[in-house]
User: Fold this.
Amino acid sequence: MSTIEPADVVAEPWDTGAPGAARVLPKPAPTPIVPGGSIAGRSLAAVVAIMTFLAALTAGAVFMMVASASDWQSAVGREMTIQVRPVAGHDIEADVRTAVAVARGTAGVADVRAYTREESEKLVEPWLGSGLALDELPIPRMIVVKLASGTTPDIAGLRSMLATRVPAAILDDHRGWIDRMRDVAEAAIVLGIGILALVVVVTVLSVTFATRGTMATNRPIIEVLHYVGATDGFVASQFQRHFLVLGLKGGAIGGGAALLLFAMLTAVKAWLAGSSGGEEAEALFGSLSVGLGGNLAILVLIVLMAAVTALTSRRTVNQTLRSID
Assistant:
């Protein structure tokens, strides 16, 4: 008769070793209705990340453009220029001195500076080139009038006095330029809102197709859940939770990449501060920082994209479940 050695005995995971003890099966781990690591889920997370990145770039660009336009308007609004044209029979130097005296006597004016003839000639070099003999050209003289902060200058009175005492002088308060900059800022805001709307629409369509594909793949599971009494709300909540996590992951990746990009631009601006390249870049592109408002807007976009993903999936699931019923 053969004997069983102790090494031949295989202990079951539920065997306590005590004689007559009840064998309790281990509790199985809960399995989600919607698999979390599917290819469709990873693809949707990538789409949400790309859409969030594009939306964050748009929002950041709008904030940068509005801030730059505001700075330009503020800088231009603090100055006016008087252009004194050379007129036959008039001493242009005397006209310039008279215009400067009139400007300094106007309420709300902080400082007045008249450009010399050489400085006025340098202003036209970008158009005419350097090294030209400009003595015979009727180049006007420029006078820069800086306004005092916190006061309202008497622009109408200054214009009237110049017309009376210096007929060859033309006052430019840059209101047309300021209005154009305001129009550009408003157009940028409208364009940014339009792009954000397109991004949301694309995200909704992507989530809708992904949800329908996931439901088609898990249709037998959904039918079994209905058979055992699961409600449509329970099934929809499972899909909503799944796509909410995907939306948060994708939004965090895309939004985080945009925040990192804008932080790098801010660091580059600080590194170039004081250099000629930094001054030229700031003059061309304006402020390269989105500021606190831009960063908060990007964080709001991350939450918005996750919410859009979750709500779209729930709406699609409810519509599909009604068709199954």
